[in-house]
Amino acid sequence: MGEGTGSSVVREPNKYNKGGVPSTTTTQSHVINKYSAEYIVRSGIAGGISGSCAKTLIAPLDRIKILFQTSNPHYTKYAGSLAGLVEAAKHIWINDGIRGFYQGHSVTLIRIFPYAAIKFVAYEQVRNVLIPTSKHEVHWRRLLSGSLAGLCSVFVTYPLDLLRVRLAYVTENKTRVRLLDFIRAIYGESASTTLTSRWYIPNWFAHWCNFYRGYCPTVLGMIPYAGVSFFAHDCLHDLLRVPLCAPYTVIKISEKEKSRRSQQNQRTPLTTWAELVAGGLAGMASQTAAYPFEIIRRRLQVSTLTATNAHEHKFQSIGGIAKIIYKERGWRGFFVGLSIGYIKVIPMVACSFFVYERMKWHLGI
Questions:
Q1: Chain segment 124-149, per-residue pLDDT in tens
Q2: What would you report as the CA-atom Rg of the chain, rounded to the nearest whole angstrom?
Q3: Contact 275, 191 (CB under 8 A)
Q4: 361 within a domain of the structure (yes/no)
Q5: How many domains does the chain have?
Q6: Would you say residue 261 lies in a domain?
Q7: Which terminus of the chain has fewer Cβ atoms in its 10 Å neighbourhood, N or C?
Q8: Rounded CA gap, 140 and 152, in Å?
Q9: What is the C-alpha to C-alpha distance for residues 63 and 107, in angstroms, rounded to an integer?
Q10: 260 falls within a domain
Q11: Which residues pair with 24 in a beta bridge?
């Protein structure tokens, strides 16, 4: 695919190392160029698959969490406890069956593959620039690499996230929910007066910006979320590789493979349990740091669907939504559904990082 690439890997079938990773015999030719098209495509495929697996795993919890976050009138009474989570699940099961847990999931998958692919590709590329050698491996560079990667991915895929939330918010029994109707409805809503009041901004562009409702708090929340996620994951990898832990946490690989990975500045993979622990703890840290912004973002995304704005389609500001949330529940309102978030984020992020690292191994990067 790309020039300057070419580390050919011949795998022996049905042979596995400790940790469930395929044993590889590497024939070394040239080190894969991390800026090449081949590396970018392979890391994108690895990231997209990892994101899709993770989201499918936790799709039912994600639907319930969105219903709680957006104060859906049918589910508000269940919010705030694990018992409420169970009752909400029963309510969905009775009214919509198993399909109710995956309402909007098709849009999620359409969104998450490019989102995760862009996020991981951007992280790899930004990290290569900010951390070209081990001497540059400092905390702020790690944090900045993750934050910039998150911002790149969320800008490209945010309209799909808005559609996913709108689809998940709808709870009325319908024979079929049409995606095209949602797209038309969002585009047809009144545009922001901040945009329409500017003579140089076309009307179509102002309406197209409806698909970015809630984008500002998303950007604010993505800085701590993606940054802390990658930062914590890398730090936990370092911790699990200290000499005391390494015999139990690091996969044993051949000397040839060690040499290849060293030349490509790649870390030796962790065992399955160690990688899952690192990913789960990284997800908890990032979720806690960014959760208030996520609450504000969800409320902004469905602000035109609430009873008070159903006919006027008014835009709410970040400050206005924050005041409403604080008035309704106090500071705890910014953390509604966080317990569900923890239940969701541990398997999701653990699965995401685990599948990504293993896909990189399989794809030879």
A1: 999 989 988 778 888 889 999 999 99
A2: 22
A3: no
A4: no
A5: 1
A6: yes
A7: N
A8: 18
A9: 12
A10: yes
A11: 11
